[in-house]
Design brief:
The protein has 109 residues and is an all-beta fold. It contains no helices and eleven strands. The strands form two sheets. Strands 2, 4, 5, 6, 9, 10 and 11 form a seven-stranded mixed beta sheet that branches. A hairpin with a 6-residue loop joins strand 4 and strand 5. The termini are far apart.
Length: 109
């Protein structure tokens, strides 16, 4: 099983990014999928999740700015990040419990 994130980068505040998580040996439609993040010196926190009936949930800090989705045909999980703030700077991880990706860095300046 492998979860591979991509799409991170450096953007200015107010900008947007779309993170992607490609799953190998793992069917994203079969699991609750989520995005977590960890900023330097801070604990890892849940950002967004989507369950098997497509119900979405978000941390209060990102509600209205981030959108989680998945493409079952491509077996990919996405996280659209809009109106980015400096406090969104973190390593973002794709999760399909109990599996974790290696992370993709998002830096907002």
């Amino acid at each position: 099983v492998q979860l591979v994130e991509s799409g991170g980068g450096s953007v200015q505040a107010g900008g947007s990014l779309r993170l992607a998580c490609a799953a190998y040996g793992f069917i994203v439609d079969d699991y609750v999928m989520a995005w977590f993040r960890q900023a330097p010196g801070k604990e890892r926190e849940g950002v967004a999740a989507i369950d098997s009936d497509e119900t979405e949930s978000y941390a209060d800090s990102v509600k209205g700015r981030f959108t989680i989705s998945r493409d079952n045909a491509k077996n990919v999980l996405y996280l659209q990040l809009n109106s980015l703030k400096t406090e969104d700077t973190a390593m973002y991880y794709c999760v399909g419990f109990p599996y974790w990706g290696q992370g993709t860095q998002v830096t907002v300046s």
